[in-house]
Batch of 2 targets.
Target 1
Amino acid sequence: MTPAATKVVRSAADGFRALLGGPPAGVWSAPGRVNLIGEHTDYNDGFVLPFALPHRIAVAAAPRTDGRLGVTTIGDDGQPQRAEPVAIESLAPGSVSGWAAYPSGVAWVLRETMPDAVAPGADLVITGNVPAGAGLSSSHALQCAVALALLGLAGVDVPETGGTQCDDRPDRVTVARWVQRSENDFVGAPTGLLDQTASLCCAPRHALFLDVRSFAMRQVPFDAAQADLEVLVIDTRAHHSLGDSAYGERRAGCERAAKLLSVASLREIDASALDSALDALPADLVPLVRHVVTENERVQQTVALLDAGDYRDIGPALTASHASLRDDYRVSAPELDVAVEAALDAGALGARMTGGGFGGSAIALVPLDRHDTVSEAVTSAFSRHRFGAPRLFTAAPSAGAHRDQ
Ligand code: GAF
C-alpha cells in the first residue's frame, strides 16, 4: 500500500477511537478504480478491463448490541459527519437518503442474505482518499469496504482470490453482486457490475479482464512503468447532472435493441454480424449498438496486446474507445474531450474518458518522459477553455479490497 493509503487506514482507526472512545474491532479498505477500456459494456454482458487505484476508502468498525447501524464519515477537512443510528431491521429501499444510503444499503442486503451477520448492529467510521464525484468509483469503494467490514465483524473473512466451493463463505463475486443489489435496489442507481468487481477483485500490477456474461476473470499483467509508461488520470472536476438520467436511458436503449434483435444481451452480437444487426434497428439505437459491439472488440484487442507485452500499442484502441463514447454513445463532456485532445496533441499514446461519463475523469497513456509536457498541455487547455483546473495524478494498478487491521 502507498503511504497515503496507509494514512487513510490509520485515520479511520484514529477517528474511530476519538469518536467512539475505544478501538475498532478491525479496519477494512477498498480501492477506487479506473477502467482501462470496456465502457458501458458491463450491463450488456460484455468485457471490461479495470484496474484498482492506489486510492482507498477505509472503514473502521466494531459490533454493537442493539441491532443499529451507526455511521460517521470523516471528510477531507477532518470534520466528522454522523448519520443518526438506524435499526438494521427497519432498513428498506427509500428509508435512508443521501450519502448514508450507501453503507445502509449494504447492511440491508446482508440482512436479506445473511441475517445473522448483521443482527448485532455495528458502528462504522469511514474515511478515504478516492476523489469523490470524479468517476473513479468512490461510492463503490465505500460499499465494498463496508461489506467486508460487516462480514468481518461477523467472523466471515472473504477469501482474496475467490471462494472455495467447500465452505460457506461468500466469494468476492457474490459480494460484488450484493453490492450491486444494494446500489440498484436500495440507492436506486441502475449500474452494472464493473466497479464493485474491480474494487473487490483487482490485484497490484494487473488489470482485471472480466467477461460479465460468464463472470470468468483473469489478471492481465499491466505494469506500465516497466515499459517507461504511465497511466495519467485527469480528473476534470466536472460533473454534469444529466448523467444520472442519461445512464438509465442508455441502458434501456441497449435492452430495447437486444429485444428487437432477439438476443439475451448485446454481447451476443458478434462484430462480424454488426452490419446486419444495425440494418435491423431503428436509427436511434444504431449508434448505441455500434458502440457496445466495437467496444467489446477493443477490449479483446487490448488484452491481446497486453498479453504480448506490447503496452505502447494499446493507445489507438483507447483513443478509438473515446471517439465511440463521444460520437456514438454520447456520454462524453466538453471537459473530457478537451482533456483527451490536449493529452494526445502533447504526445500521449492514447487517451479516453473512463467510467460512466458526463464529466469525471479521463486517462492518458503517457511515455514517462512526456509526463510534464502532457500535464502542462492539459492544464493550459483547461485554462484556455475557462474550465476549472483539473487534478492530475499517475495511477499504478493496486490492490483490491482487504482487511488492514
Ligand atoms: C458506471 C457504472 F457504475 C458501471 O457499472 C459502468 O456501467 C460504467 O459506468 C460505464 O462503463 O461506473
Target 2
Amino acid sequence: ITDAELAALDDDGDGDEGAPVSLPVLAVVGRPNVGKSTLVNRILGRREAVVQDVPGVTRDRVAYDANWNGRRFTLVDTGGWEPDAQGRAAAIANQARYAMSVADAVLLVVDARVGITDTDAAVARVLQRGGKPVVVAANKVDDTKGEADVAELWRLGLGEPWPVSALHGRGSGDLLDKVLEVLPEAPAEGRFGTGGPRRVALVGRPNVGKSSLLNALTKEDRAVVDSVAGTTVDPVDSLVELGDEVWRFVDTAGLRKKVTFSSGAEYYASLRTAAAIEAAEVAVVLLDASEPLSEQDQRVITGVVEAGRALVIAFNKWDLMDEDRRELLDREIDRDLQRVRWAPRINVSARTRRAVDKLAPMLHTALEGWEQRIPTGRLNSWMSELVAAHPHPVRGGKQTRILFATQAGSKPPRFVLFTTGPVDVAYQRYIERRLREDFGFVGTPIQISVRIKE
Ligand code: GDP
Ligand code: GDP
C-alpha cells in the first residue's frame, strides 16, 4: 500500500469521509409561496411536489441528499414558518438565522413577479450579516418576458439575481452551477462534535412515548434551556440539561406541539425522522415495551444504522411490564434485534420516570464507540493474529489474503481491508464481531469495505 492510497482514504484527516455529516449544507430560504418547495423538487429531480400544503401544518425543515454534476451536498428545505405571535416577518427572519447556523451556503428564493417585499428585505439583511455565501434565485421567470423583472432584485444587496423557473426548469442548471461555485467542498468545522452540545435524535413510531419522555427529561432536571450564551439555537431543537450537561435534542418542535393531520401523516413522520437522524450524532430509538416489536420499529432502527449514527435503544412504558410480557419481549429481542445487539438498551418509563437518569451515560457510551479509533499498527498486529487463527476460507481453489487493514474514519468507524481477492460476507461479519469483542465499539454501526489489490 502506498502513502498516496492511505491518504486518499482520509483526505482531510478528520476521519469522516463517507459519513453523511461531511457533506456541505445548502439551505433554501424565502417567504411562503415564492416556490421554495418547487425548486427543491427540481433540484432533487422529482416531478411532483413531495411536500404538499396541508392547512395547519408547518412545513418544517427537512434535509435531503442532493447531487448535481457528481457533487453531493445536503439540501435543507427550511419550509414555511407559520407566522407566530411576533408576526410573519420575525418568523422568516428566524428561518434565515437558522439557515445561517446550519448551512455552508444559502439559496434565497424571491418571486421575481412580485418583486422585493418587506419580508424579503428583512431576510436579506439577516443574510448580509451572516457571512455565508448567498445566491439569489429570481423565481417564476417562466419566459423571456419575465426577465425584465429580474434586475430590480439587485437591490437586495446580495449580488446577481439568477432568473429561474422552478416550475418549468428554465435556468435551473445555471443556478445550480452558480450555487456549487460558492458552496464549500466540505462543511465548516465544528458543527458536529467539537464545541456545542451533543446532538441527539429521539425517534420512534407514533405513540411509543417520545413527547412524554421528552417532557420527563426536561422536568427531571428542571431546566429546559432555551438559549445558552454563545450558542445559536434552532427554534425546532431543544436544549435539555441531563445531569450536569446540556444536550441538544434535534427537531423536537413536532414533539412539543402536537399537530394532528390526516393526509400523508405517515409520510411526514418518516421525513421528520430521517431528518432528525441525519442532524444528530446519536439516536435514541424509543420502543413500546408493552407491545410487540413492529415493522415500523425496525424501519426506524434501520434508518439509524444506515445513516451511520450511534444508537441507543430505549424500551418505554416499563411500568406496564408483567412477567408474561417480559418473557415475550426477551424472545422478540433475541429474534428481531440480533443485528443491533451492539446497541446499549435501557428500560424506562416516561410516566414514572424510571431510569430516565440513566439515559445520559448510555448516550456517552454510544458516542464513545462511534468516535473510537484503532491506530493502524495495533489494528494490523491484531488482524494478523486473527487471520493466522482463522484464515479466510478457500473458494474455487483460491484463498483471499488480507494484506493490510486500516481504520479510514470514525463517526461511525469505517475499516478498509486491502486483500488479494473478494472477502466473504460471513468472514466480514466475523471480523466485525471480533472487532467488537476486542475493542468495544459499543453503540455504533461499523462499516467494512474491501479493496482488492491486483
Ligand atoms: P413555497 O411556499 O416557497 O415552498 O412555494 P411552493 O413551491 O409551494 O410554490 C408556491 C406556488 O408557486 C405554487 O402554486 C407553485 O406551483 C408556484 N410556482 C413555483 N415556482 C414557480 C415558477 O417558476 N413559475 C410559476 N409560474 N409558478 C411557480
Ligand atoms: P409519541 O407519539 O411517541 O410522542 O407518544 P406520546 O408521548 O404522545 O405517548 C403516547 C401515549 O403513551 C400517551 O397516551 C402517553 O400517556 C402514553 N405513555 C407514554 N409514556 C408512557 C409510559 O412510560 N408508561 C405508560 N403507561 N404510558 C406512557
